[in-house]
Amino acid sequence: MSRPQADMEIDYSEVDGRSYSCIDGCGLCCLCQPELLAEEASEFRASPALAPGVADRHISPEVKGAAIKLRGAHGSCHFLSNRRCKIYDMRPHFCRLFPINVFVGWRIQLLANLSCRGIGLPGVSLRQESERIIGSFSRVELLTQLDLAKKVFADFVRNCRATGVAQSFSSVRSAAACVLDELADEVGISRILTYAEHGRTRQNASPADIAKLVRKTEAVADIQERALMDGTELFDLPDLSLLPIYIDEKLAWKIFELREKRIVGYVLSEDGTTDEFVRVDPNDIELLPLGDDGRRALAEYLITVNSRDCFLGHAAYLCDMDEYEFNLAQTYLGAMANNALDLWWRSSFLARLEGREKLEAKEIRNGVIFFDMDLLDLPTIGAFI
Questions:
Q1: Residue 274 pairs with which residues in a beta bridge?
Q2: How far is CA 11 from CA 48, 101, 177, 201, in A?
Q3: How many C-beta neighbours within 10 Å does residue 34 have?
Q4: Angle between helices 223-234 and 328-353 in degrees, nearest 10
Q5: pTM assigned to the model
Q6: Please, are residues 190 and 223 in contact by the beta-carbon 8 Å criterion?
Q7: Arithmetic mean of pLDDT over the chain
Q8: Could you tell me the maximum CA-CA distance found in the chain, to the nearest angstrom?
Q9: 179 near 192, Cβ under 8 Å?
Q10: Residue 344 CA: distances (Å) to CA of 55, 115, 150, 282
């Protein structure tokens, strides 16, 4: 095992001070359908015991190459039995990483998948585990991936400058930190979304100027309506395998589908069969008020999101998709507001199912568990390795 390279910038800030313990019987990571590296695909296909578990296509069309097959097309990993891995010592690379993600952008950053209920429990140090993971890569592999990703980010910056929408990465993050209170407030989120869609921001504006523009923007966006629309669309997908997964406090796997204008909740089994347990009129789900502890928990999570290079890469991806029509600050803050609203709605949805009428730290934590895996899956520039 090689040591982390001194000439590479490696950011461990998200995993520092966190511990982790695998919860027996959880199995959330076994619902993720990991793709197989090229050498793993060859090894699996060559083994009579492993070959039946290889799928030529991933459920996500943008993921190319072979992957682990899901049971019943949308159940758990082919190799899971009674929530235990049958090939644990031979499990693929991305299974071995969980709950840690390695993102390569202009630097290497270690992230914690906060959908994992084991994070925060006494056990393994995520920092030490992250250092072990980095040490498992060769120097050449890390430098190659870093060089490729740096070029992508450099191309993005050049495009922003050429179209007059550039902001430094530090400035957009500082601007988000300045408006953090607005991201936990309906009127504030409305202002940010309106600013993102209609604001006019000069290139290379200061964080203070960006925050001032946000606070001067009229709150036009209807947040309750947008939360309902976006939340409903979250469950309106063509296949059960694409629906977001929530693992509850009793370790039940739950998915929710929009059907006949109702949100139908199912408990998912390993073999892909489902058992309906609830039906909800989406019009009955409103954003619940935040208690003091809930507001603090939401702010802490948004601080984490704001520090993630993959999220900044997601804003860059959106900026590119919009053909650099909007200033990067507007795109970035709009993405922050949309995701804050998504988390708030999911937290409210889960709390309503349990008869709760206020969001405190526990309810926000459950929302994060339902949300963070999807956030880490957002399209981005750069790469997870």
A1: 268
A2: 41, 12, 19, 30
A3: 21
A4: 70
A5: 0.95
A6: yes
A7: 95
A8: 65
A9: yes
A10: 35, 15, 34, 15
In whole angstroms, what is the distance from residue 156 CA to residue 320 CA?
A: 8
Predicted confidence (pLDDT) at residue 5 exceeds the cutoff of 70:
no
Q: Which residues are registered as beta bridge partners of 256?
A: 265
- pLDDT of 3 reads 53
Q: In what order do the strands lie in the sheet with 100-104?
A: 10-11, 108-112, 100-104, 383-384
C-alpha closest to that of 30 among 251, 343, 274: 251
Distance CA 119, CA 377 (A): 19
SS (H, E, C) 216-278: HCCCCCCHHHHHHHHHHHHCCCCCHHHCCCEECCCCCEEEEEEECCEEEEEEECCCCCEEEEE
Distance, CA of 100 to chain centre: 12
Give one DSSP letter per residue of 160-220, joined into a string: HHHHT----HHHHHHHHHHTTGGGGSHHHHHHHHHHHHH----TT--HHHHHHHHHHS---
The answer to whether 66 and 35 are in contact (CB under 8 A) is yes
Q: Kindly state the tokens that stand for 85.
A: 């891995």
75-115 pLDDT, tens digit each: 999 999 999 999 999 999 999 999 999 999 999 999 999 99
d(CA 366, CA 385): 27
Q: How many helices (H) and strands (E) does the chain have?
A: 12, 14
Tokens standing for residue 128: 């030490």
Structure tokens at 28: 């959330």
Q: How far apart are CA 34 and CA 3, in angstroms?
A: 26
Residue closest to 109 by CA, chosen among 242, 35, 12: 12
Angle at 280 between CA 274 and CA 286, to 5 degrees: 135
- Token pair for residue 89? 């010592």
Angle CA(276)–CA(278)–CA(282) in degrees, nearest 5?
125
Interval 41-62 mean pLDDT: 91
For residue 101, the 8-state DSSP code is E
